[in-house]
Amino acid sequence: MEIPYSEELNALAANLAINDSSFLLKLEFTLTVHTTTVETKQIQQFKKTAPPLITTIFHGFKSISKASESTSDILTIAPTASSTLKQVTISHEFLTFDQKCQRFLNTQIPTSYETTGPLIRLNLSPSQLPFKHAIGIALLSKATKTVISKIDISAVFRNLNFELIAGVPEYVFTLNQDVRLKIDYEKVYFNSRLIEFHREIAAKVLKTTTGTILDVTAGVGPFSMRLGKTRKVICNDLNPTCFELLKENARLNKIEGMEIRNLNGIQFLQEYKDDKIGCILMNLPELGIELLEGLRGFKSACVVIFECFSRQSDNFQVEIQGKIDEIIQIKDLKCEKVRDVSNGKWMIRGEFILNEGKHDEL
Questions:
Q1: Are 61 and 78 within 8 A, CB to CB?
Q2: For the SAM-dependent methyltransferase TRM5/TYW2-type domain, which residue ranges apply (predicted)?
Q3: One digit per residue, pLDDT tens: the chain, 362 residues?
Q4: Which domains, from first to last, does the chain contain?
Q5: Helix (H), strand (E) at residue 100
Q6: 0.85 cut: is pTM over it?
């Protein structure tokens, strides 16, 4: 059949119910199959439930190759034994996301996206925005129920502002990893790309520090839930949704008696300045330096781990040290790059010992 122009395709996607991918079912092409045992009717039946990889259908076939340019609509599966030629109609569910975009959309394919549970988040370029609904629907699968496109980040609680471009508006779900984390993606900030970073820092804190831990900007608890299983953790977040989810996540992870606060980070720190603290975590890079104001007058000697941003690719430690010196005096600051956030803006992890060398009489 004749394939619609990409503009028509996207308009059709936008006019349908946002989770309706039926328009793609009409976009079929012919697959040339060499087969010895698979009957056409079996293939047609398999189409209804198969994942989008043609190779999973056929036992005994070793490769998929694209035909010549003149027959670009035909994919050939090479057999491992003698075979019989069959013509089979294949619809969109047999295609990968890249294949769908290459075939049906006149735009650059998104090269990366973030997956969090059943949700996919895209950062679409201006050239991709006109085709956002078709791109979103192309990403839907049995595992993915919701596809969103980032707009910006809220100035208040740093949660994402986004647009639903495909799927169902279901933003509350629970991630089951080494800890269980319930998330409301619409109301809190969570970045699944930092999961390994969270694990590494939690392991480091458990190995190198002792005593009570203050998690100043805890979010939904990626640090607190990992640390709270074996250490006393007092966690805090200004976002009221995070506050409620911290309580729920403590319950999900069977952590009893965890103290959970709902305060401004500086105010939270000042409430514990006279207590004996072993480690302080500040996991909010946008306010990482500003929150150090809360350490004024702190009596305990403790390890401080914080995050911040810098546009200095080489001299970021000098820049950060200078900003900290305007607030408190510290020694032996250690900084390392975590990731390039965008256009040379780096997320930095910093660490120092507060009141190093001071005799702790608490």
A1: yes
A2: 113-356
A3: 233 334 544 555 555 444 444 434 333 333 444 433 344 444 444 444 433 333 323 333 333 333 333 333 333 333 344 444 444 444 455 556 666 666 556 566 677 889 999 999 999 988 888 888 878 877 877 678 899 999 998 877 888 999 999 889 999 999 999 999 999 999 999 999 899 999 999 999 999 999 999 999 999 999 999 999 999 999 999 999 999 999 999 999 999 999 999 999 999 999 999 999 999 999 999 999 999 999 999 999 999 999 999 988 788 999 999 999 999 999 899 999 998 887 788 999 999 999 876 645 44
A4: 94-170 (3.30.300.110), 193-354 (3.40.50.150)
A5: helix 97-104
A6: no
